[in-house]
Amino acid sequence: MLFRFRDGDTRVEALVGARSIYAVQSQIDAFRERLGQAEDVMTSPHRFLPWVSMSNELPVALLLRRSHELYGVVLLYYRQRYGIPIGLAQAGNLGGQGGVIAAAADRVAAMETASRVLLRSSLAHTVVLSTLWTDKTVPGPNLPVAGVRGQWHFREVRLRLDLSGGLEATMGRLGQKMRRNLRYYRRRAESEFGCRFLPELTPEQRQQAVGVLFDKGRYPTKARRAWRLEAALQAIPGHFAMGLQDAQGDWLSYVTGWRDTDGTSIEWQLNRDHHENASISTVMRSYLLEHEAERGSPAIIFVGETAPFWSRVCEPSICGDLLATREGVIGNIAQKLMCRVSPMGQVAKLHARATSAMV
């Protein structure tokens, strides 16, 4: 489906559904190439559409033009319950990655235009758009957005682990406690389980690992979701998969993602957690860190978020979250309802931050 809107001098085409977005994928890819962002997997429809489909959300692409010239694309999705949109539109992940394709100077304007257009549509009462903040200066805690009841909120995110200088330099930048934990859990796993690291899995090994581990860890997932994500990742240029097995050949851990000029991005990690206090996740990341540092990768980049144990040693960046709601009674009721239904959700956290800033 295609809808057209105007926002000042900007013409907006809203393409709803995967089929409509696939129809303009060549335009989006050409635009990414023109901006020098062709290798940015997070803004590629090749990743975005399968990921949204896997999550059972409704994908939307907004193409923004000035004087018929494309200057921005916002890739977002409507949250759904039982196949019905609930009025919440989101773009970008918790780390501010993905979501918007635009030159640095146009990124904020593109997202603010998107918020105004979405709130004028009949499907959205709340909009949350997240992006990594590229400006050197960060505004105050609540920066208003023109034309809507909304504000920018800013927070620190840590997703990039610097590997420059190789393994020895990287280990030197880690804290003493972290280095000790990496050594201890790895030696213990090698001694007790006879574990071995497989840095490049074959398609058959990938299938075996996912089939065994998808519901075994602390954060289990459904089989259908697991296989969709695995298929989507295998279609990404530079994709890879690593594994950890015990002495009997049973799968202990699985890591997958992609490599590009920015570094090694980790999309997904599955672990078998039945070994009490073995910290299989730490063991796997010990091998991962060593392997990527020795092969010369500039960084390990965690997609979305990672555990505090690892985020503490990652480089700080600023994520900007735009939270906007429809004016009037509908917007007030919708926001209060979402905060009550999902008190740990992103809308509730941003609403709490805005309220505390006004006190």
Task: Describe the fold and architecture.
The protein is α+β, with helices and mostly antiparallel strands and 359 residues long. It folds into 2 domains: 2-156 and 318-358, Aminopeptidase (3-Layer(aba) Sandwich), CATH 3.40.630; 164-297, Aminopeptidase (3-Layer(aba) Sandwich), CATH 3.40.630. Helix content is 38%, strand content 31%. It is built from 12 helices and 15 strands. It has a 15-stranded mixed sheet that branches. A hairpin with a 2-residue loop joins strand 1 (2-7) and strand 2 (10-16). It is globular and about 65 Å long.
The first-to-last residue Cα distance is 44 Å
Number of helices: 12
Rg over C-alpha atoms, rounded to the nearest angstrom: 21 Å
Write the CATH fold name of the largest domain. Answer: Aminopeptidase
Topology as a string of helices (H) and strands (E): EEHHHEEEEHEEEHHEHHEEEHEHEHH
By CATH reckoning, the class of the largest domain would read Alpha Beta
How many strand segments? 15
The low-confidence parts are none
Overall mean confidence score, pLDDT: 88
Overall body shape: globular
In what range is the share of β-strand residues? 25-35%
CATH architecture descriptor of the largest domain: 3-Layer(aba) Sandwich
Major sheet size, sense and barrel closure = 15 strands, mixed
Helix content: 25-40%
